[in-house]
Amino acid sequence: MIKSDGPLRINAELFKELMEKVSEFGATGDGGVHRPALTDAHKAARDWLCTEFRKRGYRVLIDNIGNVFGQIDLAGPDAPLVMVGSHLDSQPHGGRFDGAYGVTAALAAVESWRDSAKHTGERPRCNFVVADWMNEEGARFQPSLLGSSVYAGTVDRDFALSRTDMTGLSVEAELQRTGYMGSDTPPQPDCFIEFHIEGDDKMEASGAKIAPFVRHWGASKVRIEVTGEQNHTGPTPMEDRHDAVLGAAYIIAKVKELTNDATDTLYTSVARLDVFPNSPNIVPGKAVLFAELRAPELDVLKWAEAELRSSLPALAARASVGAEIVSVERRPAGKFDARLVALCERAADDLGLQRMQLDTIAGHDGVALNAIIPSIVVAVPSVNGVIHRYDEFTASDDLVAGANVLLQMIARIDAAHGSLDDAGETA
């Protein structure tokens, strides 16, 4: 490792400048941002990021699903390649730290490592790439983790391009419109590191400042169509109504009841319901539910999905409607690379930061990348555990502490010539 007076520290002013600037794109005025994938605000944030890359000498690469990469070759063409980053798209009226923190901390860490090497005169042994993945959130286009999953080969590109938002605009059309339908060959890194806010209060409650995620939960995202019959809400007799929303309500209640009967941990939700024609004076003719089942164990997910499927006919019959599952998107549970977990913990110890291990229930791009290369997602605390909301907040000192851990991790990997087996032992 390149030596300094004590552990290396990031350029905190650079990080804060990057974090403050990216928070301007799609700012809602109440502390949050509205920057769903491939909107004008998202385009503006990505344009800014690409400008930052270019002015610092990074090669900007945009692949054919709209993932953006800034690559800097510090060690020559055949050196190991370390990828860091996250995503710049947000939830509708979401928080400014989710995703964007991982991108800005990544750029600040790589730049700080680069500056340290220049200062000491030692040549880095790895090259680096900062990633901004397309449509991580899955808010405008489903499924989530879309760009990283296409990159990892677990989602077909044509399928991804055909996804549409609620107005019928496709991923393909919006990539073309925003100028992010690229054709570059994407980088092929040796590992991936993502930093993120926790989105829970476990770290805050324990006093931990750093938490590598050891496991990622699996998820089944189930789309259910309920078909009734459109009619007037006034004169249509109650016994003659075929109310799609009433049928949807019975199904939503069942999704919650699954958690009571599961033999192990199960989280469920129905957080989106599309109603047609969505008029207060019309008995709804159709409703589309977006149900999510999340669990750390595959058997629990299989059980929950089977229970939901088998219950649909009776639930639909109660409302005199039809109901069917039209699609299921499954994300397997798994473990992150144990060497990267250990490396993160060693880095936190070097900096004197209290740490703990956690599972991630939410999906992250690191989950998608974990299918093909050694990967990890590392959390910093969230105040009151808030995420996906305008008042999502992480203290500046905690953000900087996380970026310092990231810098330590990439410095150790670099000193070990890219070897994860040796990086935790490099001093």
Automatic annotation (TrEMBL):
Matches recorded under InterPro entries: Amidase_Cbmase, Bact_exopeptidase_dim_dom, Peptidase_M20, Peptidase_M20_dimer
Peptidase M20 dimerisation domain span: 216-314
SUPFAM superfamilies, per the entry: Bacterial exopeptidase dimerisation domain, Zn-dependent exopeptidases
A GO molecular-function descriptor: metal ion binding
UniProtKB keywords: Hydrolase, Metal-binding, Zinc
Coiled-coil ranges from the UniProt annotation: none
Required co-factors: Zn(2+)
Binding site for Zn(2+) 2: D98, E137, H388
Protein name: N-carbamoyl-L-amino-acid hydrolase
